Every structure is written in C-alpha cells, then in structure tokens.
Amino acid sequence: MKVIRVKNYEEMSRTASEILIGEIRKKKNIVVGFATGRTPLGLYKNLVRAYRKREVDFSGVRSFNLDEYYPVAKNSRRSFFSYMFRNLFGLVNIKEGNMNFLDGEVRDWRAECARYEGLIRKSPIDVQILGVGVNGHIGFNEPGSSFSSRTRLVELSDETRRQNSGIFWRAPKQALTMGVGTILSAKKIILLASGREKMKAVERLVKGKISKDCPVSFLRGHKDLVVVTDSF
Ligand code: F6R
After folding, report:
1. CA-based diameter of the chain, in Å?
2. Up-side HSE of residue 125: CA atoms within 13 Å toward CB?
3. ω before 71 within 30° of 0 (cis)?
4. In angstroms, what CA-CA distances link 109 with 20, 113, 158?
5. Among the atoms of ligand 1, which is closest to the Cα of residue 137?
6. What distance in Å separates the CA atoms of residue 154 and residue 147, rounded to the nearest whole number?
7. CA 46, CA 16: separation in Å to the nearest integer?
8. Nearest CA to ligand 1 atom 2
C-alpha cells in the first residue's frame, strides 16, 4: 500500500488525476472502475480539463461503475448513471458502447448482478477509483459485508441513506454494488479520502484491525493500492 498524504481536496484531486492519466496513456484500452459521490468530483473536473487540453484521450477507455441505487430510473438526476454523464462521460470522448453500468431499472436484480460479474470477469478492471464512507463502506458494501462478496443487492444503512439524501430527496433503501471481492480483483486501486470525517475509516485501512465491521480495512492486503488523502 502506498499512502500519499496531501494538503487538501485540490491536491488530492490533482494527484489522483495525474496517476489516472498516466495509466490511461500507458494502456489505450484500459478498463477503469469509476465511483460516484462528492469525493471524485475534483478528479473528474481535472480529467475533463486535461481532455480539453488534449492531454488525455478516452476513446479506448472502457468503464465499469461501482454501484447504483435500486430501484432508480436511469434518467433520474439521482442515478449514478446520470451523475457519470453530468460529471465526466458527457464531457469527454469515451464511447457509449464502452461504458458499463449496473442497471437500477431491472426487475431481475440477480440476473443483472450475474451479468455484471460476467462482464468484469471477461474484462478485468485495471484501475478502480474508490471513495470511502464515514462508516468504512466501499461501493455500497456496508459494515458486515464479507471479504469475498460479489456484485449483489444490498440494504443501505440509515447513516448512508442520510448522507446521500438531499432536502427534497430520500435515497432508496437498497442498491446494487460490486462486492468487496469484486473490488479486490482490480489490478490497481486508487482510494481517495478527504476531510476529517473520513479520518477514522482511513486510519482503520492503514493500521487498524482488518474485519467486516469496516469493509475498507479489507483493502490493506491488495498488492497495488494507492491511498490519496488529506484525512490522515
Ligand atoms: C460511490 C460509492 C460510495 C462513496 C462513499 C463516499 O459510488 O460507492 O462508496 O464513495 O459513500 O461518498 P462521498 O464521496 O460523497 O463522501
């Protein structure tokens, strides 16, 4: 594990974008796992800026999103599908046919999760971008998730729902998420964390007990994990 301590959110975002752009330049048809939430917004802004300056080309990039609410309409402002278009995919030259999302509109979520796992098995993720929840969740793998969990339907904790809800909108009770085991199968993981409220989760990852009650701790054994943080 490599821990890059940075001063603030801007430096975290800049460092992460430099690393990811370097990886995209090394492998044109790279497979990237993308996260949503507040944390990667600065990274995505930097990627868009670099794309506009022709410093990076997304035409070969393939993507898998980490998670999605369930149920949720794709065109709802709240879906992670629309978040990705608004903040990155709609602003760079990534091809629609190269994007993969968990579909929060399906009835048969079991088949949907099996489909996603099959796709990831065929095109293993080269670089996974991750944020972390205050309670140590990664993706929507809440405390209690096992080390070997795969893509599945999960119940969101009250805390996560509260954090992800707005004044006029309450986050759904459930979500589809890559499992901890799925995330760990990525060749490289870049975890971003900013702010004091993430300090406990990051400490737990770097030097605390590895256990189910804090899923981010499971990442410690990964062979190529980069943590970029101002929280620690
Ligand atoms: C997002 C995701 C979540 C977030 C986490 C932190 O796709 O899977 O695990 O990374 O909830 O959210 P923010 O970045 O909003 O603090």
Report:
1. 45
2. 29
3. yes
4. 31, 6, 22
5. 9
6. 15
7. 9
8. 139
Write down the H helix ranges in the chain: 9-26, 41-52, 80-87, 109-122, 158-164, 180-184, 199-207
Q: How far apart are CA 30 and CA 28, in angstroms?
A: 6
Given the residues 103, 137, 141, 230, the one annotated as active site: 137
Portion of the chain with pLDDT greater than 90, in percent: 97
Q: Is 222 a catalytic residue?
A: no
The DSSP call for residue 183 is H
Q: Which amino acid, one-letter code, is at 65?
A: N
Residues 6+ apart with CB under 8 A from 32: 20, 23, 24, 61, 62, 63, 64, 125, 126, 127, 128, 129
Which of 169, 145, 167, 10 shows the shortest CA–CA distance to 67? 145
Per the DSSP assignment, residues forming a β-bridge with 62 are 31
pLDDT in tens, 130-174: 999 999 999 999 999 999 999 999 999 999 999 999 888 999 999
